[in-house]
Amino acid sequence: MDADLILAFRLARSGLAVRDARGLAAAAACPASDFSRDAALLALAARVEKISRETYEQAVDAGELVVAHVIRGAIHAHAPRDFALYGRALVARDDDELAVQLGQQVKRLAAEKKFAPSDALSEVAAATKGALARGRKLDRTELHEELRQRVGPELLPWCRGCKSHHVPPMLWRYATVKVGARLDSERRYLLAKPGRAAAASEAVRRFLRFYGPAKPGEFADWAGLAPAHARRLWSDVAEELAEVRVGKGKAWLLEDDLDTLESPTAAEGIRLIPPGDPFLQKPNRTLLVPKPALAKRLFRPVASPGAVLQHGRLAGLWRVKSKGTKTELTVEKLGRLGRKDVEQEAQRVAELRGAAELELVVA
């Protein structure tokens, strides 16, 4: 299978081939990371025509678009119907597999303090639920303070960076997953009602619809699951999958998607997609940026630039910063790309960030 065809399939499924999403929830069908400032807002704006900061924040506050810790314990914007699927349905029940989700710090603490990861998660989840009871809304600092009062000292290690004792990051994040907490537009946590989740194996189908053809290990990385956990979920849908040759190896796709893979929707226009965009996630990286030197510049551990897509192909890198009421947006060209090509999209980014004026540099 040709790499360009796979990337075109994934681009179309990500909603970036044509900006035709019918609303914010539809645009967030593939969860959009909200790790960096305005990342989810800008990712959705690349997929839906009618959007403003005001409409985005209203949707978040109303729960019409859910912003919460879900896959990998990271903050994503996603459709309300998928809250339980991408959240609590993927929390491991086996202690060894849960320890993989909760990370090395919790593994070390569990071994040192002789507790089971599942017991620790239950304790912090109960504390989180108690802290947010009766409709309370707490920012992260306030939530940490509540947890200090509600959990045992073995779950409050010293943090050198914060210079305080607090619950390990992945543990408290997954606690919010377990209790179904979400964030409002002011970044305050509140209890929500995720509803009943589909079987966790549905997440494999969703992953393959956006990132197929793929392998079980790629699903495990994307979902933040232990390999054995991911393989079990994968096996539940195995009869629905078709094997596809990719290079010298093999991968799998939902059989229903074979025809679409052969003739994906052609990409149109320019998109400025932010760091953490669903299309920039790990499954796509080597296909989008096969040159290691360029990949290191685009996919940094911190402070990554965004990507300029021109008719579906990587055409530049972009960065943005605020200067008072002005937004300065700089585009580094990787091919034939002019100021007029990116001006309209750059202005759209500036407006969504609340800037009164745009300063655009294309070099």
Structural features, described:
With 363 residues, this protein is an alpha+beta fold. Among the domains are: 88-191, Arc Repressor Mutant, subunit A (Orthogonal Bundle), CATH 1.10.10; 270-362, Aminopeptidase (3-Layer(aba) Sandwich), CATH 3.40.630. Helices cover 42% and strands 18% of the residues. The strands form 5 sheets. A 5-stranded mixed sheet has the order 10-11-12-13-14, with helices on one face. α8 crosses α10. The protein starts with a helix and ends with a strand.
Biggest sheet: strand arrangement: 10-11-12-13-14
What is the overall silhouette?
A: globular
- Taken as a percent bin, the fraction of beta residues is 15-25%
Quaternary: single chain
CATH T-level topology of one domain: Arc Repressor Mutant, subunit A
Distance between the termini: 35 Å
- The low-pLDDT segments are none
Name of the top-level CATH class of one domain: Mainly Alpha
Number of strands: 14
Q: Provide mean pLDDT, rounded.
A: 95
The helix tally amounts to: 17
The secondary-structure class comes to alpha+beta
The biggest beta sheet is recorded as:
5 strands, mixed
